[in-house]
Amino acid sequence: MDDELPPQEGVVAAIAHAARRTPRDCADPGLDLWNDLGIDSLSLLELIRDLEKRFQVTIPDEDTGQANTVGDLVTIVQRLAGSNQSAGPTR
Does residue 88 lie within any of the structural domains? Predict the structure, then answer.
């Protein structure tokens, strides 16, 4: 089931784009989005929108508010993407 989850690299790449850094600079799951990577509130909103499109998920405001680190975002996206896949088609 783990191979069905979005790769950490895809989330890290989106974070790197938002932070205007290289993915290598953003690979540490413990990096703080605000303090270490300099992501501000507008950048965070754009990042969330990018992740939602990229992984076809909807990230609730509650989760956005709890996303403080790279690892937090990776976990949130993987959880939501896993929920979407286990739900199956909606048609």
Answer: no
Average pLDDT, the chain: 89
* CATH number assigned to the domain comprising residue 56: 1.10.1200.10
Helix (H) or strand (E) holding 51: helix 41-55
Residue 61: predicted pLDDT = 95
User: Based on C-alpha coordinates, what's the Rg of the chain?
Assistant: 13
pTM of the full structure:
0.83
**2 catalytic per annotation:** no
- Closest-CA residue to 7 (of 46, 66, 63, 51): 51
Catalytic residue among 40, 50, 63, 72: 40
